[in-house]
Amino acid sequence: MNKKAQEWAESYFSRLDKAIEELRNHDLVSQVNVIKYPGATEEELVDAETQVYERQLENSEDYDAQAPDEPFVFNPFIREFYKRSNGLHISWHSVIFPEAEIEEDSDGEIPIAKDEDDYKEGWISILSAECLATQQGFYLYGEPQETDLGESVQSDGGLLHYIDGYNYYHDACIILENGNPTIAFGDDHSASYDTPHECDFVIYMEYALATFFSVSCRSKKLRFSDKKTVYPKLKKMVKDQDYSDLATVLKNCKHTDIDSVIALSYKKKGHEYTQEEHREGLPEPLKERLRLLIK
Fold first, then answer.
1. What's the domain of life for this entry (predicted)?
2. What is the per-residue pLDDT across 134-146, written as a single tens digit (0 to 9) for each?
3. Which of 119, 126, 136, 202 is deepest in the core (most CB within 10 A)?
């Protein structure tokens, strides 16, 4: 058992509950949807790891790449997270827009953001370990493996798989290689992927939490005020898996309060979906708050 990973996962889900409560109690937040799943068993995690390893071997053979030195295993931080919730969904939107319930698939698959969800300020849909490993039973809009980055990863014997279906146009993938898997940011309906800075699972999840799962804040990259200072620190964290400085780094985020996330989302795309009739029907105190926030 990795004590640091265990402590991180316990802390994360405790802070997650507090963030959800803050969203639910915020006067400008209309609706918060949360789905936590039963934790993955050791058998389920091992099965997912085995399937990743088998695909790695296939890619190594297909691309004449060096096979992994040893079987694939999720790093301790990913394992501890999945032991507590085998996937995670959170979505929310502000009072600027009418309430709209998410549609859960009858077979229990995690809700993936569609084009009609584009107005929502917050969304995260972390796939289950099985789906992360195989992508079976999951469809977004494209095939990450067929992109330039996907081909490059596969030619090295790795896998580029979806991990977060948080938007119909943008998404996040994970590069499944032995060691510490890293995150790539998808664009243009999964047609293009980039790694503008170092990012791994812990950094991604902590950043999402710090920004209240803001869609705009995760599109194409993570937003920091001082990239020159932050990017080298992220690189070192991914290499060492030492996250002791991560809380300090996250203070450099541009949007770490709910009001700011709502304002950014409205500026980026929310204004395209606003319904004046709905906004005019809001209580006067809320209308005044919104006038000051999104002026």
1. Bacteria
2. 988 777 777 899 9
3. 126
